[in-house]
Design a protein that fits this description.
Helices cover 42% and strands 16% of the residues. The protein has 15 helices and 13 strands. The protein has a seven-stranded parallel sheet with strand order 3-2-1-4-5-6-7, with helices on both faces.
Length: 405
C-alpha cells in the first residue's frame, strides 16, 4: 500500500478511496452456482465502485452459470476443481494454475472464499508483492464438529495447519463469527490482519414477504390453510435434518395443520450425506414434503410461518437463515457459532441446544401457540435490515480492501 501523505484523519479514508479506484479485483469460489447466489451481488457492488471484476470458478459448470455471470460484465476464468481430491500432484497443479493466472492478469486484489480455493490462492499468491490477498473464512466445517473420532481429530489438526499457513500469507482475513476467529491456532499473532464481518449479506429487496401473494404460493404448493415449517440446506445430517423431522413428527397429531417442507439436494460427496432411502420413507407422508433443489427460495420462504434450522455444523453465518430473517420469518436454530448471531432469543425466534430432538420439539410447541408470530417476523426483518443486508456487509468488506490496496 502506498504511503499516505500527512493528511488529517478525516481525509485518510478519502485518500484511500482515491488510491483504490479502477483496480482489477478477482473473486474466487468453489462452485459457479455458489458464486451466483452469494458473490454476484458483491461483484456488481465492486463494479459500481469503479473496479474491473473477475471471477475464478470451477471449469465444470453443470448449472450453466458462467454465461449468466458474464452477462453482468464480470470476466470469468476457470480452474479444474475436485472437492475431495487428496492427490498432492493434482493440488500442486491447481496451485501453479492459480499462480499463472495471478501473474498473467496482474490483479490488484484477490478475494477468495472457501477452504480449498483459499489454500490454492494463498500459495499461488506467494511472493507476488503487488497483489493483495483477502481470505474469507465462511465456516470451519466438518473438521470442527464435536465428534471425537481419530479421523476427525486428524482432520482438525491438518485443517488448523492449513489455516495457519493461509494466515501467514494473506494480507487480510475475514471471519463471519467470533467463535471461528478464536478456535484456530495463533490468531492472536495476526490481530492486525483479521476481523469479523457477520455473514455474506442478504438481498433485503428479493427476500421480503410483503412482495408476495402468500395465499397464491401456498395454493401452488398444495398447502392452503397450512402452518408451514421450512428447512433449507444441503441434505447432510449435521445440518439438523433428523432433529427437524423427528421433532415435527412428534407434534403432528396435536397440530394437524402443520406441514414441514425440506428443501435441498443430497450432497453425495459428503460422508455425512442423507441417503436416498431415508428420503423415500417420506414420499407419501401427508405432512412432510421433500422438494429437492429449488430456484424459488424467496417464494417458499414467503409462504413459511416458522423457519427450523437445528444445525450443529460449524457454520460461518448460515445464508438460508439470513434469507428467512429478511423475509420476515421467525427462526428456530441452535446455540452454535454463526447460528446464534441470527436470533435474539424469544424476540425473533429461539436458540436451542444442538442434537436435541426433545428441545426442538418443545420449542416448536412453544412457538406455535404464540399469538405474536407476525411481530416476531417483523423483528427478524429488522435484524436483516440493520445488520445483515448486502449494502452494510459489502461496505464493511470494502473498508477492509481500502486498508491494504
Amino acid at each position: 500500500m502506498s504511503k499516505i501523505p500527512n493528511y488529517s484523519p478525516k481525509y485518510t479514508l478519502i485518500y484511500n478511496f482515491a488510491q483504490a479506484m479502477g483496480k482489477k479485483i478477482l473473486l474466487i469460489e468453489h462452485t459457479a452456482a455458489e458464486f451466483v447466489i452469494s458473490r454476484l451481488q458483491l461483484g456488481l457492488f465492486l463494479q459500481k465502485k469503479g473496479h474491473e471484476v473477475y471471477a475464478l470458478l470451477p471449469e465444470n459448470d453443470v448449472t450453466n452459470q458462467h454465461d449468466k455471470i458474464r452477462e453482468k460484465g464480470i470476466h470469468v476464468l476457470t480452474y479444474p476443481y475436485d472437492r475431495n481430491t487428496g492427490n498432492p500432484l493434482s493440488n500442486f497443479k491447481s496451485i501453479l494454475l492459480f499462480r499463472r493466472l495471478f501473474k498473467t492478469h496482474k490483479f490488484d486484489l484477490i478475494h477468495s472464499f472457501k477452504f480449498q480455493p483459499n489454500f490454492y490462492a494463498a500459495l499461488g499468491k506467494l511472493f507476488l508483492k503487488n497483489t493483495k490477498l483477502v481470505l474469507h473464512i465462511t465456516g470451519l466445517g466438518v473438521a470442527f464438529t464435536d465428534k471425537k473420532t481419530f479421523k476427525i481429530r486428524l482432520l482438525r489438526f491438518v485443517s488448523r495447519c492449513f489455516f495457519l499457513l493461509n494466515f501467514m500469507i494473506a494480507d487480510k482475513l475475514i471471519f463471519q463469527n467470533p467463535d471461528d476467529e478464536n478456535d484456530l491456532w495463533l490468531t492472536r499473532f495476526f490481530r492486525k490482519k483479521h476481523c469479523v464481518i457477520e455473514g455474506s449479506g442478504v438481498d433485503i429487496q428479493r427476500f421480503d414477504k410483503r412482495n408476495f401473494d402468500i395465499e397464491k404460493i401456498k395454493g401452488e404448493l398444495g398447502l392452503e390453510s397450512k402452518i408451514v415449517l421450512t428447512f433449507i440446506s444441503r441434505l447432510v445430517w449435521q445440518k439438523g435434518i433428523r432433529e427437524a423431522i423427528e421433532a415435527s413428527e412428534r407434534i403432528f397429531n396435536e397440530f394437524p395443520l402443520i406441514h414441514l417442507l425440506i428443501v435441498g439436494k443430497i450432497d453425495y460427496e459428503n460422508p455425512e450425506s442423507v441417503s436416498e432411502n431415508f428420503i423415500k420413507k417420506y414420499e407419501s407422508h401427508s405432512q412432510i414434503s421433500f422438494l429437492g433443489l429449488r430456484s424459488d427460495i424467496s417464494e417458499i420462504l414467503a409462504a413459511t410461518d416458522v423457519y427450523v434450522y437445528p444445525s450443529y455444523y460449524r457454520e460461518g453465518v448460515p445464508r438460508t437463515v439470513l434469507e428467512a430473517l429478511a423475509t420476515g420469518v421467525p427462526v428456530i436454530t441452535t446455540d452454535m457459532p454463526g447460528c446464534r448471531l441470527t436470533v435474539e432469543h424469544e424476540k425473533n425466534g429461539y436458540l436451542i441446544a444442538p442434537k436435541s430432538v426433545d428441545e426442538t420439539e418443545q420449542t416448536l410447541r412453544k412457538i406455535l401457540v404464540r399469538k405474536d408470530l407476525k411481530k416476531m417476523g417483523e423483528y427478524s426483518r429488522k435484524l436483516a435490515e440493520e445488520r445483515f443486508q448486502n449494502q452494510i456487509v459489502y461496505e464493511k468488506i470494502y473498508e477492509k480492501y481500502l486498508e491494504i490496496i
